[in-house]
Task: structure prediction
Amino acid sequence: MILILLSLSAPLHGRQAPPSQWALCTQHTPSPVIKDTQGKTLFTADSGTIFQNETYELFGNIVLERDNKRFMSDNITYFRSTEQAVAPGEMRYEMRDLIVEGDNARMQLNDNTGTIANARFQLTKRHAHGSARRLSFDGDSQTKLRRANYTTCDPDDVAWRIKASDITLNHDTQVGTARHAVLSFKKVPFFYLPYATFPLSDDRKSGFLTPSFGNSSKSGREIALPYYFNIAPNLDATLTPNYYSKRGLMMMGELRYLTAINSGQLNVEYLPSDNIFGDRERGSVSYIHKGNPFSRIGTLVEYNYISDADYLNDFGKNLSKTSQTHLSQRAALNYRGDAWAASLSLQDFQTVDKSIPDSSRPYQLLPKITLDSTRPETQNKLNFQLKTELVNFQRQGRVNGRRFDIRPGVSFPLSNTAAFFKPAVKYEYTIYSLSDQAPGQDDNPERQLPLYSIDSGIFLEKAYDVAGKQFINTLEPRLYYLYVPYRDQSEIPVFDSGQPDFNFNQLFRDNRFTSSDRVGDANQVTAAITSRLLNERGEEHLKIKAGQIFYFDDRKVSLKNNTVETRPVSDIVSEVSLNISDRITSSADLRWDTDKDQVDKGNIRIRYHPGYRRLFNISYRYRSQTLQQTDMSLLWPLNPHWHVIGRWVRSILDSKNLETLGGFEYQNCCWKFHFLTRRFLRSDDSYDTTYFLQLEFKGLTRIGKDVDDMLENGILGYEK
Result:
């Protein structure tokens, strides 16, 4: 005999059905409300006869109540000493979340045991119902059904049904079991199970999950059969054999844990022999751990590994996965006090793209130690700050060494409701201890310099009355002056410094480089302005920000120490967000090249979201001569049952589609069906096309490829 278990696994916190789970159903039976008689049996009837105060013959509209249970019929014989009730004709029996009707019944009211013939039952909490040739109660904990069927569909439109020789409902464990079960869909039997289990609640349980199916032009047909292990309330695992017709059998495992002080997840994939990839073994490991062993101490472990550079191309689920060039591997210990924060971390990277030269690959940090002040800034008082860092950089074939950087600072922010003025002084000292240097280079270069800044701004506002509604328009000009003297840094190696993309936030940084291998010389002032339009509740309808840096001196410090920036002004950067209504929101950021009088970089996004599972997103990304992309996504109902789903990402510059996703969802009262096709451009400039089919029987299980995670990652605002 083959043993197969069906279940729906849930997150460690448990899974709650969405409010719209049964929204398309026409019949909703509320759970019975029955008073607690506290061990007494109460009854009413139109008439009756009592024999020797022991046997009660009751007739007409009879209601017997006992301990949150109700027994009703037009003809009942009740035996007082044994508390047994016998109904020879039609009857109705009600418990919390369960209603049973039948042709005749014999019930023991004091311990809820008995049998009902030709029963029709309803599990009101799960919108489930069915029938049985005979239904037996074994106390409050168990219900047995003989020659039974079960469904969550409306009674007048039963799309799917399980028929079984025996069904047992265990109300203590909230698990139902069925023997010799046949699952039918649209009256067509298509699945036979010698033994099956199904949930009576949203609690997790061990067992085989339903298989998933898919198809890929690169990997062929795919079928997966996961087994879920509910090890403990805070620990579970899933083991999944995943077969690709063109590649072979891949084993996939997932382990999750959650305690009061720790949480983590481990995912492992292993393909012992890939038929397409020269029969080589392939796999991946992904592990994340977060801990909080003490109130002020946190831990973090992150490890990612893939067997080869093409792995993400072949098995990555979306563009963000397939485009990764480095995978992080690190461990960290963090402390946060009332005024101080410290961390100790080790970090390495696996370079996915092997074409990246060794000279451009990131260093190992073995270790990195930081100590920073964290006390919040106090207005109208003298404030002290401190940032310190000690890092040991290692990479074979490169200059290695340690870097110690300390940056104390003092500021005196002055502010009121109309303006602020914040002068600040910082002092940065950096020293290195290097090895593997070129001959003649200093092994212990150091750098020390001050940084002076003044940040200031005012707040202006004006109230407007438009069509009886109150609005406030603000105008917030801001000036930021920065002076950093020039220091020759040509003998200092570049371990982890870079130059971030220039945007609005970069206008107010005291270093145009990231990290501390380079500190840029500066004698400049930033002029920026922000304007907001607020309604009477303080909600933002419109926000416009724009700014530019004016340079008084050339910038001599660069990453490669061979270029000098001579432009007197920076690009103009701006950001706009507009909430046209609760349904339509938009945002844009723009960088204007003042030398070429043209847009150098831009991003425009519009979102239309008029209601639940109704959304349309469109965005346009532009970077001069290197990037022009459009991204459109859609989730829209055609009627209460049909939704269309789509996404289209296109590179205008290359005239190529980067990703296309299209399909539909059909949903009825008790079942749902997804069909999706996805075509995406791999990093090797070839296309992969995959197909997804998923059929869900609500309240029972899903069959096919899970599409929700993919749609949540691909369509902004997607809701299950």
Notes: The longest helix spans residues 708-714.
